[in-house]
Amino acid sequence: MGPGAPEDGGWAVTEIRGEILQALRQAGDRFVSGEELGQRFGISRTAVWKHIQALQGVGYPIEAVRNRGYRLREEGEELRPEAIQAGLATNVFGRHMTVLETVDSTNRYAFAEAEGGAPEGYTVLAERQTAGRGRRGRPWFSPPGHGIWMSVVLRPTFPVFRAPQLTLMAAVSVAEVIRERAGVSVGIKWPNDLLLPDGRKVCGILSEMSAEAEEIRFIVLGIGVNVFGRVEDFPPELRGVAGSLAEPGSPISRTALIQGLLGRLETDYRIYQNEGFRAFRERWERLNVSLGRRIAVQTQSGQKIGWARRIDDDGALWVETDEGHLEKIISAEVIFDPGS
Ligand code: BT5
Known about the structure:
The chain is α+β, with helices and mostly antiparallel strands. It contains eight helices and 14 strands. Helix content is 30%, strand content 26%. The two termini are 40 Å apart. Biotinyl-5-AMP binds next to helix 5, strand 5, strand 8 and strand 9. Belongs to the biotin--protein ligase family.
């Protein structure tokens, strides 16, 4: 049991909602009473009802009937491979696909499948991740039904040193699709974050690579987008820094977003392979919220503070440091507006 508010019986919110869903699935057509669920998870019936409402809000078709309890109907906006593939305009991306109810990490799963020979474009999606990962071992919060937790296997022929640029390319593709299909003006924070207009992070991208010497065997491109969620749906440490595209219950279709993402990513990946990041630079500049900002960059060789000045054809960020040097940053953590 993880830490949590007392009314949640010590469970983390994301865990308990996943467990409630699982219990309803197992019950099939049968109604499960709030009392039974409450006893099972050590929480009150009111707390059960609160979680059910949250799940309904993100699209789970749960019937609630007085004196009988709850039942999960098997339709609605769950992620289903047939529905996603039916509207897919791609040749390879998403043509092989696994959609899981629960997984530790779609990146971990896709990586293992790629080692076993999964082809380029193979896509893994999950309704929830129990150990979603960010960079440097950081966790990625991935509650059931609230987002798009997706990984795509790539088998590029370009050299290892170009791999980080792929994340920048993906940020452009994802930002454009979100703007077009969800109508939210997200901006790109170099290198791998998409931010809402108020600065909260709504999407993170994590590419993980398997390489031998200078040759890439494969890359797993992992994308996490918070689609539905209110402030209180995030754990306390993420409130204020994380945000979602929409409130639960909003008429955004995750299926349509995924179709859009896979389509745009496939097209852009082809362009990138032929022309490199240069072909994306203008699109990146239009979407970026980093340039002109005062930033702190944490690189392997230490911290530097200064102004983000420009991005070059290789996707490197050029920073004018307070010492008066112009430095080229290829990989780093960036903090906006650091205190002095
Ligand atoms: C990232 O790492 O932003 C990359 C996240 C990639 C997640 C996807 S989901 C599908 C695929 N499978 C995986 O296992 N991962 C990928 P980073 O820049 O290190 O940011 C991590 C930090 O973002 C954490 O330390 C938190 O502060 C914050 N964070 C965690 N969960 C978040 C969320 N859902 N929304 C916004 N911020 C979050």
